[in-house]
Amino acid sequence: MIGKLTGEICLIESEQIIIDVAGVGYVLNIPSSALAAVQIGQTKSFWVFTQVKEGEITLFGFTSKEEKQLFEALITVQGVGGKVALAILSSMTPTMVTAAIIAQDITAFKRVSGIGPKLAARIVNELKDKKALVTGAYSFIDAATPLEGSQSMALDAASVLANLGFVRSEAFKTAAEILKNDEQISLEELIKKSLSQITNI
Fold this sequence. Notes:
This protein is of the alpha+beta class. The chain has helices spanning 32-35, 65-74, 82-91, 94-102, 106-110, 117-127, 139-144, 148-163, 168-181, 187-198, and strands spanning 4-12, 16-21, 24-29, 43-53, 56-62. The chain folds into three domains: 4-63, CATH 2.40.50.140; 69-131, 5' to 3' exonuclease, C-terminal subdomain (DNA polymerase, domain 1), CATH 1.10.150; 146-201, Helicase, Ruva Protein, domain 3.
C-alpha cells in the first residue's frame, strides 16, 4: 500500500496529475484546490489513499494528512465512494466539511454536484458522532466542542439563525467561538451576539 509520494509533477489533467517518483509515474486523483496549486516540473509531496476495487487500483492524493483522514471518514458512508468524497473536498475546504458535519448542515452537502438530499443527510447523520473528525486538525474545531452542553447550545443557536436565512455551519462556528469565551451565556444572548457578529453590526 502506498502511503505517501514525493516527486516531480510531469502531467496535469482535469482531475488528475502524474507524479514522477524515481522514474515511475503515479496517477493521482486530487482535489481541485490542490490541482490549482501545482505546476509542471514542481516537486510536491502527497499523502496517498490507495483504493483497490474490483481488481483496479486507484490512488487519491492529499496535501495534508488531516485531509486524507477526512477523505477516509467520508468514504465510510454508504453511497460515498472515492469520486464523491473527492468532489466534496473539491467543493468545500476540510474546515467547511467538518463544520457542516458538526453543525448538521445538510444543505452544505447538497450543493456538491452528485449529492442529493438523502445522501447529504446520511453523510451528516453517520459522521456527526465520529470524534476522530474533531481532533483539533482545524482551528475552530477546538472552540467548537469545548463541552457537550456548549455544543448543544451552539447547535440550537445555529438552528435559529439558519431559519433566519444564515448558513447553518457558519452560524454554528460563530456561536461556538462565543461560547468558548463565555460558557455561562444564555441561549437568547448567544443568538443575539452570533447574529451581531455574522452581520458585522
